[in-house]
Amino acid sequence: MAKQPMLKFVNVERDMPEKRAADARNKDFHEIYAEFADAKAKEQASRCSQCGVPYCQSHCPLHNNIPDWLRLTAQGRLQEAYDLSQATNTFPEICGRICPQDRLCEGNCVIEQSGHGTVTIGAVEKYITDTAWDKGWVQAIAPKAERVESVGIIGAGPGGLAAADVLRREGVQVTVYDRYDRGGGLMTYGIPGFKLEKDVVMRRMEQLEKGGVEFVMNCNVGEDITFEDIRNKHNAVLIATGVYKSRDLQGPGSGAQGIVRALDYLTASNRLSFGDVVPEYDSGELNAEGKNVVVVGGGDTAMDCVRTAIRQGAKSVKCLYRRDRDNMPGSQREVQNAEEEGVIFEWLSAPKGFVGDPVSAVKVQQMRLGQPDATGRQSPEPIEGAEHDEPADLVIKALGFEPEDLPTLWNQKELEVTRWGTVKADFGTGKTAMEGVYAVGDIVRGASLVVWAIRDGRDSAAAILDHLNAAQTVAAE
């Protein structure tokens, strides 16, 4: 009888890939976790309890078949594990790196509830797909038959690319329009290399291109091409622009030089990693070297900013967040990594104003948590008289993102939006009120996770295929 490869959680402790020492990793932009070795990946995968109702799977937005590919990994059947992983996830190596597993799959692992420590799902997922790339198992898309219909996708972020992948596999002609010079959206220019090295994104872009996806880069819809032109050119259109408009800081002095947007700051840093010339970095405007840096915000973008500033050689890096540690929206794993690297968090702190132009300090208001708001979270309220000045030569606004006014930018008044400015679309299909027009990802949800954008892109691609098939049936009649 074959030896049982699973259920080892009782005897095998949870283990993560080795993390590089903080005083070494905070000087470069390479990923901080080493790869699992084959034996270690098998060992950790074997800890899965193969439970009858896998909460890891149900709490994954993509409903990845996690128990089965963990079992295949434990058995050494890595190519089958990759095939299973890829069946539900367009970019498993990216999700393995940047998903907040502590809030999703791993956070709902059954064996953790029994005190044995969760299975390291994300690290195994990353290992499976990185191995697949190394072994040449990841192939360019090769549809069994080509279709005449075409789909235009606006936005080369995770939602748009996931939809492009699904549509091309069915032989649909796909053109992706994007405002940047490289595809990937925030995966390329928003997320730092120490979380997601850029060659990981670029090789997926290359795979899609080799598979027949056409990319039209440096293309601003509404300026370089009209939305109407795209609509007339294609049988269906998918809006996957993301949300890029930064929420602003208020208060006296908020317009001072030295107060910058998180996305501008991160984009400049990521462009450097490609070897681009970045004048705003060279001038010092978007460079933290030698400066007292204050980042305002508590989400994952704020974590990206503080950890980038450390690597650029900042004199000091502090993060102001108006709630406490337990109530911050960012990943606790990221907070721990940031603290190890030298970031100081000032909890229950909010900016009240700014001193100097260029900025020299932030006026900080101490807060306390009061009554719960509409979402159930305790609302922060100021403590009267509890204020101080925090020295700052560079202030980075990381307060989240809002949608741009697409109906105005694209001259499409009939494109319905919600009161938050997001495109109004069916959550199951991405279908909007405009015939043949769909929308997915952050432009529908508001700022959210890459994994949700991938889910939306895949679901909407399936709906678009139904739409194309229905039109084909009508034409045949």
TrEMBL record:
It holds the Pfam family Fer4_20. Gene3D superfamilies: Alpha-helical ferredoxin, FAD/NAD(P)-binding domain. GO terms for molecular function: 4 iron, 4 sulfur cluster binding; metal ion binding; oxidoreductase activity. Residues 151-457 form the FAD/NAD(P)-binding domain. Residues 25-136 form the Dihydroprymidine dehydrogenase domain. Keywords: 4Fe-4S, Iron, Iron-sulfur, Metal-binding, Oxidoreductase. This is NAD(P)-dependent oxidoreductase.
